[in-house]
Structures are given as structure tokens and as C-alpha cells.
Amino acid sequence: MKTGNPAANESLLFSEVFPGGRHYSLLMRAGNVMRLTDLEGGANFALMLVNPENTLEKYNMPDTLKGQHTFRLTAGNTLYSDMGRAMASIIEDTVGWHDTATGTCNRRVVAKRWGNNRYQESRNDYFRNGRDSFLVELGKYGLGRRDVAANINFFTRIEVSDEGDLSWSEIQSTAGDTVELRFEMDCIVLFHTCPHPMNPSETYPSRPVQIDMRTVPPAPQDDRCRNARPESARAFENTAHYRQQGDVS
Description:
The protein has 249 residues and is an alpha+beta fold. Helix content is 22%, strand content 26%.
């Protein structure tokens, strides 16, 4: 696969299209970028982050939102760990809103909304759910139910009323929308393309997402994500210290 950017082509490490309703995991090194592309529109790409050197450290949704005074994620936002470090940053985004507050679907939600389409009858086309998908991937690293943490639902937008009620937005991502994550530290990335738990579709949503990975230089001191908030600047400093000295927390 070639991109429109010659420099990006030179540093391309990996390119793959993941169908809807699938799951996978991989190790992303600091200095790598993961570019996600919604190929058909209406995709959901649910992602969890874990520190491979200390699997107790994971992406922390409350601190990420609170520290950046926001309820949604977009370009300029940093993904904080529960040890105050910058795990990754969103450096490009054409969607403008990514949900991280409503979690992932489970077996009961999928069966109630779209039917109990099992592997025994449908083989690889059975209806996967987000929670079990995360558990399968966590198990590959010796992790389990206690390690299920908050996730991000890239490409999914949720509306919030003045009373604080959450609802599915009629405005969702469209075909060709992209978001880019730059990794500030090594991370185990666990993801699935199962439906969002609030998706009102009458049929099981199955939308493919393309993943392209490349290398980039370290974030400069005037980086947009680093300087978006004082809390983000501290998170970057904490990550730099961790990478130089090791985990002393």
C-alpha cells in the first residue's frame, strides 16, 4: 500500500485492512505512528493501551478527559496513563470527535440487539463482541479480566445533553476519515472492530478499518499535543523521564 506522502512511504512499517467484527493486538514502539482509516464510513475502532514493561499501567480515561478539560478526543489531545505519563498523542484527525466514555459491547448486548449468531453455525462470520475480543487479546500477554480497562472508540461520536444524558449521534465518521496516533512510549495495543454498544443499527454493523504504521521523529518542544495543556506537558516530561531512567514510580 502506498500513501500520498512520499516521506510516509519511505518509513511505512505495516499496512493492513481489518474487517468489521475482528480483533488483534501488537506492540507499538515509541516514535511509531498508527494511522486509522474508516474505509466505508460508520466504523468503530475500539482500542486499549497497556505498558509492556509494567502491565499494571494502562490508558486512563478519567485522567485523560479531566486533565484536558474535554469529553471527547481529537487532534491535539494526549492519552494519559494511570501513572501520569503520555502514552500516545492524536496528531491528525478528520473526524473531530472520538468517544472514550461509553466502553465496549459485550455478549449480552450483541445477542439482544443483533441476535445470537454463534460460531457453531456461522463459523468465522459469527457476531463477535468487544469485551470477549479484548479478553482474547489480553490473554496473549498473560492478562485477564482484572486487566480490562477503559478503551477509546475511534470514529464514534456520542451526543451529550444539557442534563448529561448520552445518546448516539446522527453525525458519525464518513468513508475516508482518518486519525493518527503517535506513540510516546512503548505500548501493547489491543483493538477490535466490533460494534459500539450504543449503535442503533438493525443489523450487526461490520465496517472495515485500514491500519498503516510508520516511524516519525520525536515530538519537538513546540509540539501541539505537548503544549495543549500544562497537564499534557507534565505527562510528556514524565514519559521522557521514564524512558531515560526506567520505572521508578
